[in-house]
Amino acid sequence: MSREDLYPEIPIELGYASEDLSNAELNTKDTRTFNTPSRASITHHMAANNSSPLLVPIGSNFWNIRGDFKIVKLLNVGTHMSVARLSTGKFLIIDGAPTLNNPTLVKELNELTSNGENIEAIIHTHPFHTGSIVTLSNLYPNAAVYGCPRHLKMFPDLKWTGDLSEPTNLARWQPEVDLRIPTGTEFFAPSEHNHFSTIWAYHRDSKTIHVDDTLGYAQTVRFPLSMFLSPGLSFHPMLSRGGIQPRAEAPNEFKTFIQTVMQDWDFDNIATAHMGVMIGNGKRELAALLERTQGELDRLTKKFSKK
Ligand SMILES: [Fe+2]
Fold first, then answer.
1. For residue 75, which of 34, 36, 71, 179 is within the disulfide window of CB 3.0 to 4.6 Å?
2. Distance 274 CA to ligand 1 centre (A)
3. From ligand 1's centre to the CA of 267, what distance in Å?
4. Highest taxon of the source (predicted)?
C-alpha cells in the first residue's frame, strides 16, 4: 500500500483531522527536563522525541518549543511554538502549544520575558492550530494578540489586537520578522480539513523560518508513523487536495512564493509544527523539495486549466 493510499484511511491531522482540541485532550503531563542538546542533535532529538517541554535555542535570539500532538491517541506527530527576541529586547511569541500546561516551560518563559512583561505580542499563524490560544492569552493577558480570521471568529470574546493577515500586521515586525501568506494557497476560506496554508514567519537574526503545516520535517520516522511518512522535508499532503487554490495560475503562484522566499530570506533552519526542526541546509532542502514537487504542480495546473 502506498503512502497516498494510506492517507484517506488514517484520520491524521496532517491530512484530515482537526486540531481544534482542548488542552485536556492532549498529552500534557510530561514534565521531564533535559539538557539543551547541541545544535547538531536538535533535529534528531525533536524528531525522535518530540515531547520536549523546554525552550530550545534555534540560532540567535530564537527558541522553539516542542509539544506532543497525538493522532488517534497513538501517532505523535508533535506540534510547536516559537519565541523571538527583538532588537528592542521585547519578545514575540509565535503560536501556542499544549506544552504551555507544563509548569517547567512556563517558568522558563517567565524568566526569559520578565514574567511576560517583555512580551510585545503573541501571533497565531495557523487557522487550525487553536488548542492553546486561550491558554496563552490567559498566561500573558497584557500581551497584544493577533490571529487569523478563523481565530477571531472562533474566539470572539478574546481580546484580539488585530487580524494578523492584514498587510499592516504582516509588516509590523519587519525587517526582523517577516510574515507572509503563501500565494496560490487556500488561506482565507479553507475547508475544515484543509490545513495546508499558514502564515510563514522568518526570523532574520536566527536565519529560521517558523512554518506550521505547509511544510513538515522529520529527520527520522519510526513505526507506525513510518507507514505513511517519509523522513525529510515535505509539503503537507493537502497540497493537491485543496491546499492550492483551484485556479490554473495558482500552482505557479505557489511555486513563485517558494522561489521568492528562497531569494528574499537568508535562512538555514526550518521549524515545522509536525514533526520537527531542520537545523541547517534549509534553503537547499526547500529547493530540492520544490523540484521534487514540480510534477505535482504541473498536474494541478493541467487539471485546473480544464475547468
Ligand atoms: Fe497542523
1. 71
2. 7
3. 22
4. Eukaryota
